[in-house]
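[User]
If only I could read backbone structure tokens as easily as an amino acid sequence. I have put the entry right below:
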Amino acid sequence: MSTEAIDPRYVDIDQWPTIRAVEVMLEGQMAAIAAIGSQTGRIAQAAEAAALRLGARGRLVYVGAGTSGRIAVQDGVELYPTYNWPQERLIFLMAGGLAALTEAAEGAEDDADAARAEIHAAEIGAQDVVIGVAASGRTPYTLAAIAAAREAGALTIGIANNAGTALLDAADHGLVAETGTEIVAGSTRMKAGTAQKAMLNMLSTAIMLRMGLVYRGRMVNMRISNEKLRLRGQAMVRDIADVDLGTAARALDSVGQDIKQAVLVAMGVAADEAQRLLEAHGQNLPDAMRAVQQGG
């Protein structure tokens, strides 16, 4: 595997001046992002398929071990505050359990039986989307989870840093960023990890876009949890509904700080009707707004 190989260019990096080592690390990070360039079409296809599959009840499931698992969890946990993605629709399967986020779980990545058992226990099914991340593309835990999830009817997405590996073949959608050798051999928290983080960010954000949780570049499904976000929410309602800030604030207060519902209320819709419209249109604000404008 290229991610595990020793690159002769960096054999003496521990003897280099620190500034030179850091400059080479930056080059590696830039190369990692460039490695994603060939995958944009595949990421888009995976996102569109995931959004369709998730619907109103499907769950996003993140699977990984070690560094890859931690990066996957980092992406998933941000969906609740950023897009108010329901926490009950997020599942994290980490080799060795969530305790392995902060402490290494020796041997856990090889436990394929545990992965299959966890997929079964989570009752993964046809409405779910399971994302497996492994730099090597062959981590037994992640590979087994993806295979079991696909067998259960879930949509599966595999993210790896080595081409032609089992994870990419096992998943419905295989995404690969060939980041090559690491400056410190095998340290996939570097180039491979950077590429994984970027691909996951792009994938999950594209899913949220296709599910109508972003409107005109704004996080209209954002969870308002502090004063800064409350003011941001008021500005969103003001701009989208084309009303003054006072009207926007009152609309938000009347619907428990739900931005999408507040937009409809600011447009003159009663609160209960605004909620009904959003439910009827799968929480898609643009579709609900069009229904209001068309009188239905």
Summary: The longest helix spans residues 191-210. The mean pLDDT is 94. The two ends are 57 Å apart (CA to CA). Residues 188 and 263 are 44 Å apart (CA to CA).
